[in-house]
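Our platform keeps sequence and structure together, in a single record for each protein. Such a record has a labelled line for the sequence and another for the backbone structure tokens. The tokens are whole numbers drawn from a learned vocabulary of local backbone shapes. The remainder of this section carries one protein's record, kept here as part of the documentation:
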Amino acid sequence: MSALKIAFETPENPANSSAAGRPPIDFAQLSKQTMGDKDLEIEVLQLFARLARQTMAEINDAGTDACGQSAHRLKGAALAVGATRVARAAAAIEQRPGDWTLRAALGAAVLEAELFILKLCR
């Protein structure tokens, strides 16, 4: 259990945050959703990482309408776990689903969140 506690008390250093200076997951939001249950937090984050990867594949293969719908689903899931950069990038695609630059930015945000989650789950 101590390893789990250490994982969620990530130190403030460049390896644990993005250029914005904050980790890709808002632990306060995640804790609200899971009522502070650390085991549930890990499970929810792992589910989110799988969903995000699957949704990115859908977005990259989708036409404009389907892309916007997939981005909307991803935005909701990201907001639920506190992945605010993923949520913002998905919201931008909702507004302009045909913009491939936005799709690339969403891919980068998803990758950043996924790598962060994988580090937490070690």
Observations:
- The mean pLDDT is 87.
- Residues 30 and 44 are 9 Å apart (CA to CA).
- The radius of gyration is 14 Å.
